[in-house]
């Protein structure tokens, strides 16, 4: 099974598991790192993610996956808060509008390759950040990666 197929299957399972709770499934990632496979589930809740929320998703999903056994090799299941979640698609730039993000670029923007600020949105394939009251435009084709920043 290909990684995207695993992610789609697990996302469907998680939709059922989270139904009737205040847990939002933010993202599912199935990837290989250092020779090991990881199934990562990122969640969010209106009042913040608790250890009980993570435990509930981990145990319930883990039981379903053990029963069905759809993944033919070993993997590590991780469930956590969306925290410093990577922004992977256009919808993330809309969903997380108003939140702090860090954007790394392939080439300097205003003399920097790493910028952190309030996400204003995505307009015509340009990420708009507010940094110290100034609006900075970053073309998507210049973004190497972007992440939410945990605000304390």
Topology diagram in text:
Layout: H1 3-18, E1 24-33, E2 36-44, H2 51-68, E3 76-81, H3 90-95, E4 100-109, E5 112-123, E6 126-131, E7 134-139, E8 143-148
Parallel strand pairs: 2-3
Antiparallel strand pairs: 1-2, 4-5, 4-8, 5-6, 6-7
Give an overview in words.
The structure is a single chain. The protein has 152 residues and is α+β, with helices and mostly antiparallel strands. The protein has two domains: 3-81, RimP-like superfamily, N-terminal (GMP Synthetase, Chain A, domain 3, 2-Layer Sandwich); 90-148, SH3 type barrels. It has helices at residues 3-18, 51-68, 90-95, and strands spanning 24-33, 36-44, 76-81, 100-109, 112-123, 126-131, 134-139, 143-148. Helix 1 crosses helix 2. The longest helix is centred in the middle third of the chain and has 18 residues, at 51-68. The chain is globular and about 50 Å long. The termini are far apart. 19% of the residues are buried.
Query: Main β-sheet, in a few words?
Result: 5 strands, antiparallel
Structural class: alpha+beta
CATH class of the largest domain: Alpha Beta
Question: What is the strand tally?
Answer: 8
Percentage beta strand: 35-45%
CATH fold field value of the largest domain: GMP Synthetase, Chain A, domain 3
Distinct helical segment count: 3
What's the CATH architecture name of the largest domain? 2-Layer Sandwich
The unreliable regions are: none
What string gives the helices and strands in order? HEEHEHEEEEE
What is the terminal-to-terminal distance? Answer: 39 Å
Per the principal axes of the C-alpha atoms, what is the gross shape? globular
């Amino acid at each position: 099974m290909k990684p995207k197929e695993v992610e789609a299957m697990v996302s469907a399972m998680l939709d059922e598991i989270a139904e009737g709770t205040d847990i939002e499934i933010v993202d599912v990632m199935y990837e290989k790192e250092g020779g090991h496979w990881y199934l990562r589930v990122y969640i969010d809740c209106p009042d913040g993610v608790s250890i009980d929320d993570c435990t509930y998703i981990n145990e319930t999903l883990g039981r379903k996956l053990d029963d069905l056994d759809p993944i033919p090799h070993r993997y590590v299941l991780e469930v956590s808060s969306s925290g410093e979640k990577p922004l992977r698609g256009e919808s993330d730039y809309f969903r997380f509008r108003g939140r702090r993000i860090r954007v790394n670029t392939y080439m300097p923007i205003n003399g920097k390759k790493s910028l952190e600020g309030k996400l204003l949105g995505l307009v015509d394939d340009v990420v708009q950040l507010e940094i110290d009251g100034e609006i900075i435009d970053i073309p998507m084709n210049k973004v190497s990666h972007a992440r939410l920043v945990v605000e304390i």
